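Fig. S4 source data, part A: sequence.
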Amino acid sequence: MTSSKGIFKKSAVFNTFSILAIVGNVIVAILFAILFTGGLNNSFEDSERIAIDGLVGGFMFLFTILSALVLTSSILSIIGLIRMRKGQRRGFKMYLFANGAWIALVFYASLGDAYYYLFGAAISVLFILYFLTVYRKMQSGYQSVETFYYPSCYRLATNVNRLT
């Protein structure tokens, strides 16, 4: 994953996992954006019925909030994945936070008798574990690769040698 110059190189497995994760999160984001807008529309239409029956408004409000959380989690995951593809550790931390929220929501959804949701959580955990193995090979922050791996005096000496 790292070359002799310390540059973060992406393996074929990393590319495959990151592209699959991006595609999966884009699909989830699109689906939950549709659900979120539907929840917003229905909650406003049902606002007259809330006074009569608070149950419908309560479920629709909860549905809309959960859709917004999943949508936000997917968007943060996509941003984290893009940063990870650039070799930044901050991207993994963002992906870990967003996918952790997704896993928590999946466990919340499976509290009833819907244990099949746990399959999605297990896949997310596998992706996190794989990206964790790559994490230590990424650079921290927004530093350039040469600045992170080589001291400035060594870099200056190498640049002078190239000119002569």
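Fig. S4 source data, part B ends here. DSSP finds seven helices and no strands in the chain.
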